[in-house]
Amino acid sequence: MKSVSIAILLVLFSFPLYAQDPEFPKEFIMHLNVHSGMVTNFDHTPELYAGGIQLVPQYTLVTNLLRGGIIADGFYTDKKIQGAFGPTLSIKLTTLKAKPFGSLGNINASINHLWGTGKQRLLGGGVNADLFNMVVFGLSLQRDYGLHNWWLQSTMGIRISKKRKIKDI
After folding, report:
1. At a CB cut-off of 8 Å and minimum separation 6, what does 85 contact?
2. Rounded to an integer, what distance in angstroms lies between the CA atom of residue 112 and that of residue 125?
3. Strand partners, 60
4. What pLDDT sits at residue 122?
5. In order of start, what are the domains of the chain with their CATH numbers?
6. How far apart, in whole angstroms, are the C-alpha atoms of residue 161 and residue 67?
7. How far apart are CA 80 and CA 119, in angstroms?
């Protein structure tokens, strides 16, 4: 009877451990993103295609809430291959819950500032869906205050850093 009581207590005390939010754990994460979209002024002038590849390493600054890192971007626009670099912050908005299975992922907002090799000065952000802590889909809007236009992009990415192993309780 004593061992059954202890087993029941252990199970009851373990529920808060399973109820914790698994998104944005204290760890390093790196994504490789492919982005595509347009550079526009939202007027009668033709839009330019912009597409490329980004390397986005980040580290969790506030567990379950905030990540900070950098973006290294190689892209093609205006018939030229160019690059950009700058800081980024990701703020977790919500966790996508799958009740009996834990979490499917999260929705987060990103804020970034990139300096480009073609005098671009991009300030903006986007909304991302990070699914299974492996795949990222996003939309972003950035203002190029150096060249006075807007960049509207869609993004798909994969996690290329190793996942941290969860230790058994």
Report:
1. 70, 71, 72, 73, 114, 115
2. 6
3. 67
4. 97
5. 22-159 (2.40.160.20)
6. 15
7. 13
